[in-house]
Design brief:
By secondary structure, the chain is of the alpha/beta class. It is 40% helix and 13% strand. The chain has a five-stranded parallel sheet, with helices on one face. Helix 7 crosses helix 8. The chain starts with a helix and ends in a 7-residue tail after the last helix.
């Protein structure tokens, strides 16, 4: 298992540097079903991690589907809707759909989702993640994104102020893995070199970049 998966946060308390978004989810924690979330942010700041944590509060892993936006078809979406009509089997009663790179959703899918999200069942949560921010939600639809955004809880993951927090966590991981040989100041430089992409930082640590020379 690579380091990014081994040390991926599994709970809100483990998420680093995204206090505002975490606080919003914490306030909604008992009422996440029946909602859609639109999570934006740079690569490596925790979008998919946060999406999986939200999903885990509603659905068991086998009732969670994760897909890339361009791969979601009309047929697969209809199939999911039919599936969601039944009571989920497992410890948790719900279903979750995570759509990564959601800016790649096609126009027909966006049009269907407008109806799906309007009447989302209380046992289902849909989470979209994307690096696109602002009103440019989709790449090619040429649609007014306002109606879609209004159906979602919009969370923007920032990178401002995360560098020292990321550096501290990265050094801890490197120490645990026997891959550390540098002071924390060098981890701050690493985070900056990687443009606050935590996943990329872990990859460089895994290759031995932070071992002493």
């Amino acid at each position: 298992m690579n380091l990014s998966e081994k040390y991926r946060p599994a709970s809100l308390s483990e998420v680093i540097g995204q206090e505002k978004s975490v606080a919003v989810i914490e306030r909604m924690r008992s009422n996440l079903g029946g909602r859609a979330f639109w999570i934006t942010g740079k690569s490596g700041v925790g979008k998919t991690t946060l999406a999986r944590i939200i999903a885990s509060h509603v659905a068991d892993q086998w009732n969670t589907r994760e897909i890339v936006g361009r791969q979601l078809t009309v047929g697969s979406l209809r199939e999911l809707q039919d599936h969601w009509a039944y009571v989920a089997m497992g410890e948790k009663p719900g279903y979750a759909l995570i759509v990564n790179e959601a800016h790649g959703l096609s126009k027909p899918i966006v049009e269907i989702l407008l109806d799906v999200l309007e009447g989302l069942r209380s046992n289902t949560v849909v989470i979209f993640t994307t690096t696109h921010e602002g009103n440019d939600l989709f790449e090619e639809t040429k649609m007014d994104a306002g109606p879609f955004a209004s159906r979602c809880v919009c969370l923007s993951l920032g990178s401002q102020g995360v560098t020292p927090k990321f550096a501290k966590r990265l050094k801890t991981i490197a120490e645990l893995e026997g891959l550390d040989g540098r002071p924390e100041s060098e981890y701050i430089k690493l985070v900056n070199r990687c443009s606050q992409n935590f996943r990329e930082c872990l990859g460089r640590i895994e290759m031995g970049e932070m071992l002493s020379e």
